[in-house]
Amino acid sequence: MLNMGLVEDTPTGRLMLNVMSSFAEFERDMIVERTQEGKAIAKQNPDFKEGRPKLYGKKQIEHALHLLKSNSYKQVEEITGISKSTLIRAKREATKRVL
Question: Where on the tree of life does the source sit, at the highest rank (predicted)?
Answer without folding.
Answer: Bacteria
